[in-house]
Amino acid sequence: MKYRKLGKTGIEVSEISLGTWQVGGKWGSGFNDALAEQIINEAIDDGVNFIDTADVYEAGASEAAVGRVVKSRSEEVFVATKCGRQINPHINEGYTPEVLRKYVEDSLKNTGLEAVNELKKVFPDRESLAPIALRWILDFPEVGCIIPGASKVEHLNSNINAAKLPPLTKKEKVAVNDIYEKYIKKHVHQLW
């Protein structure tokens, strides 16, 4: 497979990528999860690293299949999804930031893809990233205490054990900070 830069992003994507509007069957004919996963896996096996989907493709089943497969793979795969086609009536006034934000959040939940996937690359052996997040916060000397919630005793134990973890390495701190700057800061930093 050959790769080219995607516009001005600097991201190298496969010359032939994968569109998923009919990946699990014909439009409107029901969705075949096994077929969808086979097609997506074979595409990645063949070097495809860019997959396009949308929230309306078979009522979100395509997005979910893409997310399942991408999360199961070790390769870096870029996913583009589209939203807004469900706005009714389908007019410009319906495309408000609030409405679009909700569609994007729904797509992230449906695919299960978000900045966490990048954290998994930094900490591949971790079952849960919650203790890592707590450890990262504790690594800031300005923090007096953190107050995580717990709905199970296991959560409480995990939270407490986070303080026993060794501080993050310099490399891990840089990677986590990059993810924070890229994905999280713009959504929360202005709130404090």
Question: Would you kindly provide a written description of the structure presented here, covering whatever features stand out?
Answer:
With 192 residues, this protein is mostly helical. It has two domains: 3-113, Alpha-Beta Barrel (TIM Barrel); 121-191, no CATH class. The chain is 45% helix and 9% strand. The protein contains seven helices and five strands, in the order E-E-E-H-E-H-E-H-H-H-H-H. It has helices spanning 33-45, 61-72, 97-111, 115-122, 130-138, 153-162, 170-188; strands spanning 3-5, 12-14, 18-19, 50-54, 78-82. The strands form two sheets. It has a three-stranded parallel β-sheet, covered by helices on one side. A two-stranded antiparallel sheet has the order 1-2. It is globular and about 55 Å long. The relative contact order is 0.09.
